[in-house]
Amino acid sequence: MPTTLTGLLLFVVLLLPGFAYLVGKERNGTERQASPFRETVAIVAASVTSELGVLTLFSIVRWLWPAGTPNVDALASNSGAYLRGSTALPGHYREVAAWGLGMLALAVALAYTATVPAVRRRTEWLPFIGPYPHSSTVSAW
Predict the structure, then answer these.
(1) Rounded to the nearest 5 degrees, what angle is found at the Cα of 112, between the Cα atoms of 58 and 66?
(2) By percentage, how much of the chain surpasses pLDDT 70?
(3) Three-state secondary structure of the chain
(4) What's the pLDDT tens digit per position in 40-52?
């Protein structure tokens, strides 16, 4: 569990796609009561899957268009200097913030889109998606 405010904010932000998945599932799926453990696992799995998908897409864009994306190597090795900049080099905090928010929004949209019935019908052949359970398998109440 996070122990600082920054850690808590990062924890919540990284779970946003899973929350969008849960909302979409409640809206578009059949009503089935899951245990708290199963619901938590679904939220975390949806978050991690959508974020990994977006990071894969970002790495492809970075490979094809390196000048238009943040320099991940410089950000990882010396993040403070890369973000703030110096007298010789400009800061990149706006670029990193814009890309980060855009990637988060795409991950949330991807997680929610995975719950839309029309999308699920087209992708139910994938082993990790599968169809929604039929309405006859859940409670009529």
Answers:
(1) 10
(2) 85
(3) CCCCHHHHHHHHHHCHHHHHHHHHHHHHCCCCCCCHHHHHHHHHHHHHHHHHHHHHHHHHHHHHCHHHCCCHHHHHHCHHHHHHCCCCCCCCHHHHHHHHHHHHHHHHHHHHHCCCHHHHHHHCCCCCCCCCCCHHHCCCC
(4) 888 999 999 999 9
**110-126 confidence digits (pLDDT tens):** 999 988 888 877 777 66
Task: Show Cβ contacts of residue 61 under 8 Å, excluding neighbours closer than 6 positions.
Answer: 68, 69
Distance, CA of 81 to CA of 52 (rounded, Å): 27
Quote the CA–CA distance of 22 and 27 in Å, as a whole number.
9
